[in-house]
């Protein structure tokens, strides 16, 4: 990759959400903002190799996108007042500094996560507009056809426009009821960065995990007493702390039990543990994200995999099952069961989930590992084959392939 290509890739990672959010604030139209941003990046691909990378790539992209948006509005023959608004919006003067609550990207995510939209649509729109993922990447994350995902996102933008959903942070009275949808969207954005599904993307996308963490910090500033916001932030920090140890030198995913714990980020772990302790001290019954954060706190407290307090982890999963009785939680609980009661007991619990998780590749990964531990190599190989076929992450596919090929 040339220096210009690297600059364009970096600019897309760092500036996409900022450009879309800025244009959305100026023009009040997600569709115009997205299209103009995409055109600006396409123009960069054409011009930067010959003109050189501008000193301020973000400002260049925003200015170019702004012009593209005005051109589109004029082409579509909008009303005179709309054209006047567009011309007024095109201003070379720098914008006034934004505070935490006035952050354009935070406004954008609350717009994308408006309760008028279905939860899956909110998440998909957030991944596209805030995360900058392509429609194929989002379709893979949802295990749906690309065309269906494209239509879902298009309909969501049209609904926001037709319903005149405001581009703003909700009022203090509405904020608590709106935050759960935002947290769900941010968690999925983080997960896409934690284990990227795109075949042509990096296996770990730090840009997405960092943006998810940044936006979660902003929401915590808005709702400092909300336990689930604190829980999600702690969960993200404790997971992100292990990022540098999760990929080997040859590009394979490194499982938790094989990671170099000395490479974990001690500062992120300390902050995550502090958040977990603060929530425990309140005595308020924890929600889903707080329990998941507590599970990760137990994992990151062990200096060696052999020191892991599996009994505590299982107790936390029992608590989580009562809050979130989903098959995915049951699958993760079975992993803890295997450490305490053995792989045979765990496999029986996992197999009961087959009808609900047959298309979920971690289900087959878990089965493959349990069957491997039981000495059932042929069955384990078959499970690895299913997991490899469903996995979209290049590092994970490499890891699973090696594990499968090690079987006799």
TrEMBL record:
Coiled coil: none annotated. Residues 75-90 have a biased composition (Basic and acidic residues). GO terms for molecular function: DNA binding; sigma factor activity. Residues 109-160 form the RNA polymerase sigma factor 70 region 4 type domain. The keyword DNA repair does not apply. Signal peptide: none annotated. The keyword Phosphoprotein does not apply. Transmembrane segments: none annotated. PANTHER family: BLL6612 PROTEIN (PTHR47756:SF2), BLL6612 PROTEIN-RELATED (PTHR47756). This is RNA polymerase subunit sigma-24.
């Amino acid at each position: 990759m040339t220096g210009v290509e690297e600059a364009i890739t970096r600019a897309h990672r760092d500036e996409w959400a900022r450009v879309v959010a800025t244009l959305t604030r100026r023009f009040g139209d997600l569709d115009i903002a997205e299209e103009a941003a995409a055109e600006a990046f396409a123009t960069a691909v054409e011009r930067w190799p010959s003109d050189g990378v501008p000193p301020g790539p973000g400002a260049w992209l925003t200015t170019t996108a702004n012009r593209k948006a005005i051109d589109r509005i004029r082409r579509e023959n909008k009303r005179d007042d709309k054209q006047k608004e567009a011309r007024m919006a095109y201003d070379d003067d720098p914008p006034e500094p934004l505070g935490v609550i006035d952050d354009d990207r935070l406004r954008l995510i609350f717009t994308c996560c408006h309760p008028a939209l279905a939860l899956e649509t909110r998440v998909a729109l957030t991944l596209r507009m805030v995360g900058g993922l392509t429609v194929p990447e989002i379709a893979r994350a949802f295990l749906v056809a690309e065309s269906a995902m494209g239509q879902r996102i298009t309909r969501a933008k049209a609904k926001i426009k037709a319903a005149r959903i405001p581009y703003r942070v909700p009022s203090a009275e509405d904020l608590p009821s709106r935050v759960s949808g935002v947290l769900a969207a941010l968690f999925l954005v983080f997960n896409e960065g934690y284990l990227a599904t795109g075949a042509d993307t990096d296996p770990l996308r730090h840009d997405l995990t960092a943006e998810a963490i940044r936006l979660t910090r902003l929401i915590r500033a808005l709702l400092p007493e909300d336990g689930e916001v604190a829980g999600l932030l702690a969960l993200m920090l404790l997971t992100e702390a292990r990022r540098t140890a999760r990929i080997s030198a040859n590009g394979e995913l490194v499982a938790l039990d094989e990671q170099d714990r000395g490479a974990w980020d001690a500062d992120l772990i300390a902050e995550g543990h502090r958040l977990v302790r603060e929530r425990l001290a309140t005595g308020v019954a924890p929600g889903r994200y707080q329990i998941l954060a507590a599970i990760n706190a137990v994992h990151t407290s062990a200096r060696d995999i052999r020191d892991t307090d599996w009994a505590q982890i299982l107790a936390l999963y029992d608590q989580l099952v009562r809050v979130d009785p989903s098959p995915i939680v049951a699958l993760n609980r079975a992993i803890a069961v295997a450490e305490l009661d053995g792989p045979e007991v765990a496999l029986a619990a996992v197999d009961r989930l087959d009808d609900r998780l047959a298309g979920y590749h971690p289900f087959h990964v878990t089965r493959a590992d349990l069957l491997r531990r039981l000495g059932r190599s042929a069955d384990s190989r078959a499970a690895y084959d299913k997991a490899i076929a469903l996995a979209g992450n290049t590092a994970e596919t490499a890891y699973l392939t090696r594990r499968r090929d090690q079987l006799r």
